[in-house]
């Protein structure tokens, strides 16, 4: 089955091509047969104040494309550049193949799939950032 399948919670809000839509009182599924429709669940959105890491920045760019708040062409260029940077950072890690898939999804303009993929990378990034923050730095190294 091609396209995108969304499982929606009762009363869940989402954007379809920039228009706010709300599910009814029961769980539901909708299938979008092609990739020309932009869909974004509000529960998947990051607030601008939460953009404090490279993966979150890439995620936010994909979110802006889906919400229509940035042009597709300029958004795609910015997102691709951010993902190439992530590809370098995560080279040799357990998510290297996932980053490659996310890049492919970007070239195919499958931005919801990009969000899903980046959401899976967030825990590793957080772990890496926490590990880096815990490395003690000697005063003599700061003077260099």
Protein model, in words:
The chain has about 140 residues and is an alpha+beta fold. The chain has two domains: about 1-45, no CATH class; about 45-135. Helices cover about 50% and strands about 15% of the residues. It has helices at about 55-65, 70-90, 95-105, 110-135, 140; strands spanning about 5-10, 15, 20, 30, 40. A three-stranded antiparallel beta sheet has the order 3-2-5, with helices on one face. The chain has a two-stranded antiparallel ribbon with strand order 1-4. The chain is globular.
Question: How is the secondary structure organized here?
Answer:
Layout: E1 4-8, E2 13-16, E3 19-22, E4 28-32, E5 39-41, H1 54-67, H2 72-89, H3 96-107, H4 111-133, H5 139-142
Antiparallel strand pairs: 1-4, 2-3, 2-5
Helix pairs in contact: 1-2, 1-4, 2-3, 3-4
Main-sheet strand order equals 3-2-5
Q: SSE order, as H and E? A: EEEEEHHHHH
Helix content estimate = 40-55%
Q: Could you name the ranges where pLDDT drops below 50 across 5 or more consecutive residues? A: none
Label the structural class: alpha+beta
- Percent range for β-strand residues: 5-15%
Number of domains: 2
Number of helices: 5
Q: Calculate Rg over CA atoms.
A: 18 Å
DSSP, total strands: 5
Instruction: Please identify the oligomeric state.
Output: single chain
Which geometry do the CA atoms define? Answer: globular
């Amino acid at each position: 089955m091609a396209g995108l399948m969304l499982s929606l919670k009762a009363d869940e809000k989402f954007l379809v091509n920039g228009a706010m839509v709300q599910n009814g009182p029961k769980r539901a599924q909708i299938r979008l047969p092609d990739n020309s429709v932009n869909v974004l669940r509000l529960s998947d959105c990051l607030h601008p104040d939460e953009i404090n890491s490279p993966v979150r920045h890439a995620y936010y760019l994909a979110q802006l494309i889906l919400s229509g708040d940035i042009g597709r062409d300029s958004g795609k260029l910015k997102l691709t550049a951010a993902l190439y940077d992530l590809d370098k950072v995560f080279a040799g890690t357990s998510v290297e193949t996932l980053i490659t898939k996310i890049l492919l999804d970007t070239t195919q303009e499958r931005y919801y799939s990009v969000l899903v993929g980046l959401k899976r990378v967030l825990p590793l990034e957080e772990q890496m950032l926490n590990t880096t923050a815990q490395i003690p730095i000697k005063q003599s190294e700061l003077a260099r």
